[in-house]
Amino acid sequence: MSDIRHSLLRRDALSAAKEVLYHLDIYFSSQLQSTAVPIVDKGTLELVEEFIFHVPKERGVLPKRMSSLQELQLLEIMCSYFQEQSKDAVRQVIFSALFSPQGNKADDSRMAMLGKLVSMAVAVCRVPILECAALWLQRTHAIYCVRLAKVLVDDYCSLVPGSVQTLQQIFSASPRFCCQFITAVTALFDMSSDDLIPPNDLLEMVVTWIFDDPRLTLITFLNTPISANLPVGCLDLTPLVGLVRWCVKAPLAYKRNRKPALTNGHISKLSKEEKEEEGVGDRDLLYSKLHLSILQVLMMLQVHLTEKNLFGRLGLLVFDHMVQLVEELSRLVDELNPLNATKETELSLDRLAQALQVAVASGALLCTREDLRSLCSRLPHNNLLQLVLSGPVQQQPPHSAFQPGFYPHIHTPPLGYPARPTPPAHSQHPAHPPHPPHSALPAHPVQPFLPGMAFPYRPIR
User: Fold this and answer.
1) Other CB atoms closer than 10 Å to residue 124's CB: what's the count?
2) In which band, very low, low, confident or very high, does the pLDDT at 382 lie, cut at 50, 70 and 90?
3) Please, what sign has the CA dihedral across residues 260, 266, 271, 272?
4) Residue pLDDT, tens place only, 425-448
5) What pLDDT is attached to residue 426?
6) How many Cβ atoms sit within 10 Å of the Cβ of residue 21?
């Protein structure tokens, strides 16, 4: 390895980086022929960090920097390499060797280069890079995934108006990347402050993706061996928790965002931006569509969990995450109470009630009725939420056949109350003569809640 390094030291920055990439290809291609799990040794990592990310090996040595033009040329070389490499295993291991965080001072340069490479891959639709990035997002700590998501949001939703269309078009090219990207942006924009509310362009794009194909949110879950241990701190298998958080917190979060400031004890005049209500209705419709799609996905999960023999064993909505969501919602309600946010509070609680009911019924959320009662005890009274908490969810046994349209009864007696006694049997009455048949009524067309999507009941808007 020392001979390779001495040879690279005599080259210019771009030539040395190209040579390291060529070395990685030979090194890992050879390893994959003899072992299924290649080993990235320390010497190879040091070459990558010194000649691609320009972290000097010796102290006091000035790093060999590339110019902006050389950096662009290197990104094009990487794009071409990953596009032309026909072996997926080689692509994945080289991508991991280049961009997996090591917890050292090279990580900032590593993340900066990764953001530029993935942003370029989106712009020119390089599917192999997007697929590598999807696996990277699945295996890397959420802190770094959020950083990559922020770069893409800044590039395509903030800097250039209208550029979000470029990002939106990758939906058909790499659904796997889109699923992981949604998971990352919901972790980034958790609505905990006004700065962490998703931009309108990003919201519209995500809702369009999921509304067109709700199964998009399940791609990672359906294609991941659940028996494998995922790294600690990585993103969730699905973006469902983050999307439920968006739908539940949105009414109150946007209400907080429009909160007027106090000046000398008086409410100051609202700015022009705060006065503008144009687009609010469209945004509310987006969250309504998103809420509908999430309920549909939760109802699908019973089939998939049963097929994988995971019904009652794996909860894709982790109960601890729901505890955190309810705590955040409770703080929002307390914060906005003086502002008379009754309408927004009711909408948030209605959505929470529906999400909890369908998630528990479908096996996506594993908890008892007492857990739910304790969870929601601090929230204001809400009729729908109280109805959901009033009786046990009758989950379908995992070994039984799935019945389409199954939905648990919620009008059962509350826990601790005796059931209604069974009435005594009546004596058998003589059979009535058959009634004459009625003429058939004309069939009426089904009226779906939203155009093009039928649903068994109306979601809360």
Assistant:
1) 11
2) very high
3) positive
4) 555 656 666 666 656 555 544 444
5) 54
6) 19
For the purposes of burial, counting CB atoms within 10 Å of the CB of 447, is it exposed (0-12), middle (13-18) or buried (19 or more)? exposed
Over range 279-296, report the average pLDDT: 92
Q: Is 316 exposed, middle or buried (0-12, 13-18, 19+ CB in 10 A)?
A: buried
Question: Are 116 and 78 in contact, with CB atoms under 8 Å apart?
Answer: no
Q: How many of the other CB atoms lie within 10 Å of CB of 206?
A: 25
For tokens 């945004």, name the residue: 283
Query: What are the respective helix, strand and coil percentages of the chain, to the nearest 5?
Result: 60, 0, 40
Nearest to 327 by CA among 355, 352, 350, 344: 352
> CB–CB of 328/192 below 8 Å?
yes
| Helix and strand counts by DSSP (H, E) for the chain | 19, 2
Burial 72-93, CB ≥16 within 10 A → b, else e: eebbeebbebbeebeeeebbbb
Distance (Å, rounded) from C-alpha 289 to C-alpha 292? 5
Cα-Cα-Cα-Cα torsion 25, 137, 283, 359, nearest 10 degrees, comes to 140
| This prediction's pTM | 0.80
DSSP label of 154: I
Euclidean distance between CA atoms 200 and 195, whole angstroms: 13
What pLDDT score was predicted for residue 435? 63
